[in-house]
Amino acid sequence: MSPAPLIIIVLSSLLTCSLLGASATALHDHGDASTDFQALRCLKLHLSTSGFLPSWKIDGSLQNFCTWSGVTCSKRHTSRVVALDLESLYLDGQMPPCIANLTLLTRIHLPNNQLWGPIPTELGQLNTLRYLNLSSNNLSGMIPSTPSSCSQLRVIDLASNSFSGEIPPNLSQCSNIQQLKLDHNRLSGGIPEGLGILRNLSVLHHAGNTLTGNIPLSLGTSSALHSVNLTDNSLTGPIPSLLANSSSLQFLVLTKNQLGGEIPSALFNSTSLKILSLGVNNFIGSIPAVFLNFDDSPLQHIVLASNNLAGAIPSTLGNFSSLRWLLLSQNNFQGSIPASIGKLRNLQLLDLSYNF
User: Fold this and answer.
1) Is it the case that residue 17 has pLDDT exceeding 50?
2) From which residue to which does the signal peptide run (predicted)?
């Protein structure tokens, strides 16, 4: 082979490598200050039709948008937006897909505005997003299925909107979720079983929907589980054993469902549970007469009204020294009211009506 063809081959190879490298760089390119400015400009044009966000000067050339109210820029990447905090600013309109052009966003906090319409699917492209709060708006449509790149997400709060359809099962792919709040929407179907195995789950709030089926058997797996509120749905079946035996659970609110079976005694023996609210269900059986840990119990509210409970009201309830609410009305309890209940110094609300 002559030298000339060899040089051509080498140069061709170098050029190919260079192009591949440029292509790889393009695939990982997260934009620049100009694209962030244009994305913010797009947001204001779509969401601030009433003239709010006065500090957002979008006319003319590139502005120092890092000084705009509600905008936080990165300390590592010059003039790159990492957070939007725009709570209660009367923003109205549909959230535009251009928000996904803020490719380094880690936080979107837009609660208590007047946003409407669906969540743009492009939001799923933000693989650095850790916090999403769009609560108390007028958003509707189905909650978008999450991409596999959602592992950075820690908080999803979509409460108090008008979302419909089912909870996406692949939310369980967001393996680091700590808080999932979908309260007060129009969601139907069951609670995905996969949500129960989220190892970092701390808060699960789905109250005020029309959810059906059983509470996931795996719920309670997370050692960080702190608060479960599934009030005002149409859930059936028993309280799962894992949930009842959770050593971290402080708030269990399951009022106004169609849950049944016996109330697990583990709930009364918990050393972490503060609020136990199971009213307006179909629970049967009796309240356990023997408690193992009442000296250490932080229980403040016991709400068991409007069930099918029977038997005697145990005198040992008077040993829960932190108890403030004891609501046992509209059951089938019999016998006398234990004198020990009168010794509960912190008791503020007692309702034993429609029994005996």
Assistant:
1) no
2) 1-24
Q: Considering its fold, how many domains does the chain have in total?
A: 1
Query: What residues contact 303, with CB distance under 8 A and at least 6 apart?
Result: 255, 276, 277, 278, 279, 325, 327
Measured CA to CA, the distance from residue 212 to residue 178 in angstroms comes to: 23
Closest CA to 71 of 46, 36, 100: 36
pLDDT (tens digit, 9 = 90+) per residue, 224-246? 999 999 999 999 999 999 999 99
- Determine contact, residues 312/335, Cβ cutoff 8 Å: yes
Write the pLDDT tens digit of every residue in 20-47.
333 333 334 457 999 999 999 999 999 9
- Residue 239 corresponds to which amino acid? I
Q: Which amino acid is at 38?
A: Q
Q: What is the pLDDT of residue 148?
A: 65
pLDDT band of 49, cuts 50, 70, 90 = low
Residues ≥6 apart with Cβ < 8 Å to 169: 192, 194
3-class state of residue 36 by DSSP: helix
